[in-house]
Amino acid sequence: MPFLRAILAVIVGLIIGGIINSALEWTGSVLIAPPAGAAMITTEGMRASVHLMQLQHFIFPFLADAIASLAGAFVAAKIAGRYHLMAAMNVAILFLAMAIHIYSAIPFPVWFMAIDFLFAYIPMAWIGDRLGRPLARLDPEFE
Q: Degrees (nearest 5) of the Cα angle 82, 17, 22?
């Protein structure tokens, strides 16, 4: 049962992280207007407009990825018990895989992709695991 619990933890972590990611992306689109003449609604529009984006347009996408990974990993670590680190890292790896898929369709600047890949997923999942881990130790299945 602990392994099934870890699978459930990953699923719940992905759902929570996905909700947080969407909320932050939406918040960013409300607070920071898209570049003039940019159609950021569709993939084609983003592909055609990404060269118009400035630094401020990349802040919320990075925050969304990082905080979603952190929160998803935290929730997964709290639920997973003994397999807390595995669950937290699986959340991050799945979010990273989704980002790679998105970045293969939209040519974001290399500097942004490098920062996002290096800091938004695995390090945030590790922190989320560490924050969620003390609470997981109260679980009798943890050891």
A: 175
